[in-house]
Amino acid sequence: MKFKRNYLFIPLFAISLGFTACSDDDDNIDPDPILDPTGSLAVEDQMLESNMLTINNVSMSADGWVVIHRDNGSGGPMVPEIISVPQMVEAGESMDVMVQLKEGETVEDGETLWAMLHTDDGIIGTYEFNGSNGLDAPIMDEADNVVTQSFEVSVAPMGTLMVEDQEMTNNVVNVASVSFDRGGYVVIHASNDAGDGPMVPEIISEPVYLEAGTYTDVEVPLTSSANVEAGDTVWVMLHTDTGEEETYEFDGENGLDMPITDADGNVVVKPLTITSVTVVAITGSLSVEDQAVTDNQLNVGSVELSESGWVVVHASNEAGTGPMVPEIISEPMYLEAGTHEDVMVTFTESANVAVSDTVWVMLHNDTGVAEMYEFNGINGLDLPIIVDGNIVVTSVEITE
């Protein structure tokens, strides 16, 4: 991007060097033209902190402005709009110039921004550049290029959390509300020995992964070894998702999946007291007959659930002796607690079910995010329902 320079030339008049005396006007002539302001800047990729960005070095031949532009998507700054409060910089060299984003302006993690130098003309001390009025124009270098530099900004993960003291049923803790600005984890830590904070890095729950968004009534299953009793306090904490995606890796030393902190640098963690512990058997049953597939759907004749859960279809394993898990070949069908007749379950487009194939219909519970099927065989969420020690599953042969 280039802007036209405006030069002010003062004409030089011929001066007689003979015996003719110089006039008074000749004595006031300045032989040097007024030069455009010059400058340079250096800026590094950085973390946005308190809505402030740091320009590492600024050098200006005259007082001027440092501003931040967004990227235009084509490898340059978007002008004339700026997203920062114009920062006046005095002539000379300045280190670590702090530039604040305008109120209401936000940036995304990994976004590219552009720092740029502008002159200060027109009304001195008032930033007036609008791309057309010729005021406070970008400063140019010797090659007639705008003095600007791009950098990448990182934004610390953000999240909020609300919990309540509660009765715990079936080793599952209900987290009233969670919000993330990007994917992360809800986990539960036990209390430390002093009882005034969480014991880290160990967790006593399955790590529940959530995409960016706001969630209510997130069901977090405790591990079988948690041994939480009535009167115990546990600590619900939010963690980032770095390293391998959707794999919880926080160990307190490797720098991965770290706890999320708020604007004041405090870990987002909340205590809650378990007021009572109860165990209620989750039961379920299903009945389904061998059948032909119609409209890419399977008819499950009858389903009974003591709690809300899922009906899904798994393919047969290679031996043909049971279901292949955790993969499913149907859309998960969510059902409220109760009895349901003729439940139509739709196969996925990639299921490729053919005549004489055997598929397996299975019931799963609903933990983690309500009404979101999350079973992957590892995370402890939406597990198969077990009655009398056996998974509730039945085989179905696909007929003509």
Automatic annotation (TrEMBL):
The entry's keywords: Signal
Limits of the DUF7282 domain: 40-152, 160-274, 285-399
Name this protein carries in UniProt: DUF7282 domain-containing protein
Pfam families the UniProt entry points to: DUF7282
Disulfide bond keyword on record: no
Signal peptide: 1-23
